[in-house]
Amino acid sequence: MVCNNTLAIALKGQDASRGVVKVPHSTKFDADKIKQQLGISVRAWDEHMYQMKQLSQRKVTQQEAAAYFDAVFNNTSFSIAEQDERFIQYYRHVANSADTHKTEPNGRAMSKVMTMFNGHGRGAELSSAKDTAYGLLCSITEYSDHERRAMSQDHRLDSTWFGSGAALKQRGLEQALRMIF
Q: Pfam families attached here (predicted)?
């Protein structure tokens, strides 16, 4: 059994109708044969690991982080040149104010992930995550999987694997990869 994220990476680009292998009980389990039948590629995993390594080496500024979170949460164009002074002022206000009422679209969520990115997230102080594009992606993942409001743990898990949480994490990955490629 593997997690849904690992399986999604391994099956990247594969035909959606594939994915079923019948193994009779009288047969000895052969993981390599099953992987071959499923079309799971080690190459896809290696590519994913290469991308994560590149993200961990890409340093980001606070302005880039604000632009990244805006692009992920609000589906805006991610271009540092297009980001105006209001984002900088907004995050300065967040840092200096105890006001929890935000008028910015998705302001509360963006404040939360920015706080996690700036050292309050799980593993945020690790060298691979601190002030890196990988740290941005980790903040989005932690927020989606652990911090985002949900009616129950079952709803949270469903969202994380298949719903809006999965879509948010996918946008986060795509935006992070745009920073390195």
A: DUF932
